[in-house]
């Protein structure tokens, strides 16, 4: 839809605009009353517009054109995310707003994880050699096809350790993640009254020495291969937080993991 990959260029300045906007998004998440400022006439005039040449404006314009096709008199019905919005009764304006969130949340996060894997493996000769050897051996033994299937990639244990470790080094989510408690609770000996806004830092959780060891700040895939079942589950539960839990859980998690499995294998096998 955006033709960024085809042209190998940030055509509308979307990527740079998103990177600049994320800190502001985090601020609004932490201080919700600031959102009211966006409703003022002055701020509305400064918001992205479909008439803009760069930034989120052109993306809004493209999204609206697509939504006209899906909500018009001769609406196209297809089995993917937008079709799901339509089937579940979202009005056109609601779906347009939701789609912009999905584009940011579904692309930047996976890209962050992929860049982290590539950067840490490529700059660690021993790790690079072990991952390359695992992929090459599996290819020679006919255990992985071309392109690799997700199920095949999941059997490459060192690959999985590298991907999991990347979540610890640079979690795809940033800032602190606020949640409001539904009822009174006692967590780790601390009483949390109902209605309390509680936040957690992904970076702090992923570098927790109690969970990952004293070398938590070092990219070390072997921690996943050498851990006993208890330690492994603790680490697994920690990185699961990158995808959220309950009703806040990431619906795109299966797709994100498939993308990581396939892209890392296909990149390093070449």
Automatic annotation (TrEMBL):
<keyword id="KW-0408">Iron</keyword>
<keyword id="KW-0349">Heme</keyword>
<keyword id="KW-0479">Metal-binding</keyword>
<dbReference type="Pfam" id="PF00067">
    <property type="entry name" value="p450"/>
</dbReference>
<dbReference type="InterPro" id="IPR050121">
    <property type="entry name" value="Cytochrome_P450_monoxygenase"/>
</dbReference>
<dbReference type="GO" id="GO:0005506">
    <property type="term" value="F:iron ion binding"/>
</dbReference>
<protein>
    <recommendedName>
        <fullName>Cytochrome P450</fullName>
    </recommendedName>
</protein>
<dbReference type="InterPro" id="IPR036396">
    <property type="entry name" value="Cyt_P450_sf"/>
</dbReference>
<feature type="binding site" description="axial binding residue">
    <location>
        <position position="250"/>
    </location>
    <ligand>
        <name>heme</name>
    </ligand>
</feature>
<dbReference type="GO" id="GO:0020037">
    <property type="term" value="F:heme binding"/>
</dbReference>
<dbReference type="InterPro" id="IPR001128">
    <property type="entry name" value="Cyt_P450"/>
</dbReference>
<dbReference type="GO" id="GO:0016705">
    <property type="term" value="F:oxidoreductase activity, acting on paired donors, with incorporation or reduction of molecular oxygen"/>
</dbReference>
<dbReference type="GO" id="GO:0004497">
    <property type="term" value="F:monooxygenase activity"/>
</dbReference>
<dbReference type="InterPro" id="IPR002401">
    <property type="entry name" value="Cyt_P450_E_grp-I"/>
</dbReference>
């Amino acid at each position: 839809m955006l033709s960024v990959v085809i042209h190998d260029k940030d055509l509308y300045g979307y990527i740079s605009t998103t990177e600049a906007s994320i800190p502001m998004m985090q601020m609004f998440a932490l201080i919700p009353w600031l959102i009211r400022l966006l409703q003022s006439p002055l701020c509305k005039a400064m918001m992205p517009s479909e008439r803009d040449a760069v930034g989120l404006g052109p993306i809004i314009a493209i999204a609206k054109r697509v939504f006209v096709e899906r909500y018009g008199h001769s609406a196209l019905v297809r089995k993917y995310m937008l079709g799901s919005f339509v089937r579940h009764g979202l009005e056109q304006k609601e779906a347009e707003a939701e789609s912009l969130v999905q584009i940011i949340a579904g692309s930047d996060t996976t890209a962050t994880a992929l860049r982290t894997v590539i950067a840490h493996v490529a700059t660690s000769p021993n790790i690079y050699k072990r991952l390359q050897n695992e992929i090459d051996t599996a290819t020679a033994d006919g255990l992985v096809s071309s392109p690799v299937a997700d199920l095949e990639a999941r059997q490459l244990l060192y690959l999985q350790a590298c991907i999991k470790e990347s979540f610890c080094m640079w979690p795809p989510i940033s800032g602190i993640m606020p949640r409001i408690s539904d009822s009174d609770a006692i967590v780790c000996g601390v009483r949390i009254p109902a209605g309390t806004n509680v936040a957690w830092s992904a970076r702090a959780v992923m570098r927790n020495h109690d969970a990952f060891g004293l070398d938590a700040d070092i990219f070390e895939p072997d921690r996943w291969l050498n851990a006993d079942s208890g330690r492994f589950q603790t680490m697994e539960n920690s990185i699961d937080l990158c995808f959220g839990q309950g009703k806040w859980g990431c619906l795109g998690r299966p797709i994100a993991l498939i993308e990581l499995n396939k892209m890392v294998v296909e990149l390093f096998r070449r």
